[in-house]
Amino acid sequence: MTTKAILVLVAMSVLGAGVANATDDYNTATGLTAAGAPLGLHGVDPVAFIRLGNRIDGSAVYTAVHDGVAYYFSSEANKQAFEKAPSGHLPQFGGFCTFGVSVAKKFDGDPRFAAVENGKLYVFLNEEIFTAFQKDRAGTIAKAGKNWRKIDHVEARSL
């Protein structure tokens, strides 16, 4: 194997490690978007969701990549709002199910089952878990916040 081939393999493994880390910290779809990053929040526009409290699908036409994850938006204005202040528009707990994080697990967060609390977006695995969340919103969010600090960078499969 040539030195050039070895360098290419090393570069690919380093770049691949970056994508793997993003998927450990963020709930993303498998595969890559045209932007070269995995898709977050199932393609739902996080800015519209937080501002309107309702799920609106984004479009690949309006894509922004943050921390190795691609997000779709329903308009150029929403994309620009996200790019100016991404942390104010990201789903909490990396887009993983808030209840799952409250029990130290990383389950898929499905934006069909979501809540906006104090300007923050929380997503849930399914309707049953979302309904259970309704009984103790503040408690679930508080538990998830404590656990997230412990599991944020931990691979979902190892939890």
How would you describe this structure to a colleague?
This protein has 159 residues and is of the alpha+beta class. It has 2 domains: 29-90, no CATH class; 92-152, no CATH class. It has 6 helices and 4 strands; from the N terminus they run ααββααββαα. It has helices spanning 3-25, 46-52, 76-84, 98-102, 127-135, 137-151, and strands at 59-66, 69-73, 110-117, 120-124. The chain has a two-stranded antiparallel sheet. A two-stranded antiparallel ribbon has the order 3-4. β3 (110-117) and β4 form a beta hairpin. It is globular. The protein starts with a helix and ends in an 8-residue tail after the last helix. Mean pLDDT is 87; it is low at 1-21.
Low-confidence runs (pLDDT<50, min 5 residues)?
1-21
* Helical amount: 40-55%
What quaternary form is this? single chain
The Cα radius of gyration reads: 17 Å
| Helix-strand topology string | HHEEHHEEHH
Indicate how many domains the architecture comprises: 2
The main sheet comes to: 2 strands, antiparallel
Give me the count of strands. 4
Number of helices: 6
SS class: alpha+beta
Task: Tell me the overall shape.
Answer: globular
Determine the mean pLDDT: 87
Strand content: 15-25%
Strands of the widest sheet, in order across it, are 1-2
> Span from first to last CA?
39 Å
Question: How would you describe this structure in keywords?
Answer:
159 residues; alpha+beta; globular; disordered N terminus
